[in-house]
Amino acid sequence: MRLVVVSAGLSVPSSTRLLGDRLAAATAAHTPADVQVVELRDLAVEIAHNFTNGFPGRALADAFDAVTAADGLIVVTPVFSASYSGLFKSFFDTLSVSDPEALAGKPVLIAATGGTARHSLVLDHALRPLFSYLKAVVVPTGVYAASEDWGAEGLDGRVERAAGELAALTAGLSAARPRPTRDSFEEVTPFEERLAALRPTG
């Protein structure tokens, strides 16, 4: 399983990145996963240039490729003004312009961090609609971590539940995805033969 974490944390160290790492580790505990982290902080300049010239730089293009090729995504943003950060939204804006179907059918676990529990509704009022619009399959449980949640009861349970849902959804979609075989392709009939079969006889 190729699992990509997209983190929009700005500080170093970042609680946003920490939450992404915990979610990735919990998911990998359910199913073997090759985890890659995309730090949007490092791509800010290339994202801005992409808006003005229409072309992603090398690092941004690599991030697009990683997200597009992933079997599952974990996306984590800090909360600014009761919503996702501008950097977070800008990344997915430029990705969707580059490839409108990049997230179509892709399992996504949404998560956010903030200073107060009052912002927890950001998951359902901002993040879930965004990824539904991008045609992703969002797992039922989102994870929000306020400052007081770190080290407190409850966060570990939410992390484990969401990770289990992502692992199960990813495995289910992979198993359901049709894999073409030699026998699955239709036999090609030459056009002349099809045309002759339509002509009246006698």
Our count of helices gives 7
Number of domains: 1
User: Outline, from the CA principal axes?
Assistant: globular
The second-level CATH architecture is: 3-Layer(aba) Sandwich
> Which percent bin holds the helix content?
40-55%
What low-confidence regions span 5 or more consecutive residues with pLDDT below 50?
179-187
Return the CATH class.
Alpha Beta
Report the sheet-strand fraction: 15-25%
Structural class label:
alpha/beta
Q: How much is the radius of gyration in Å?
A: 21 Å
Q: From the 3D structure, determine the CATH topology.
A: Rossmann fold
> How far from one another are the termini?
61 Å
CATH superfamily: Flavodoxin domain
Helix and strand pattern: EHEHHEEHEHEEHH
Q: Could you tell me the number of beta strands? A: 7
Largest sheet: 7 strands, mixed
Mean pLDDT: 89
Helix-strand layout with pairing:
Blueprint lengths: L1 E6 L7 H16 L3 E6 L4 H10 L4 H12 L2 E9 L2 E2 L1 H13 L8 E8 L7 H12 L3 E2 L4 E4 L8 H22 L14 H8 L4
Parallel strand pairs: 1-2, 1-3, 3-5, 5-6, 5-7
Antiparallel strand pairs: 3-4
Please provide a written account of the structure.
The chain has 202 residues and is of the alpha/beta class. It has one domain: 3-Layer(aba) Sandwich (Rossmann fold), CATH 3.40.50. It is 46% helix and 18% strand. It is globular. The termini are far apart. About 4% of the residues have low confidence.
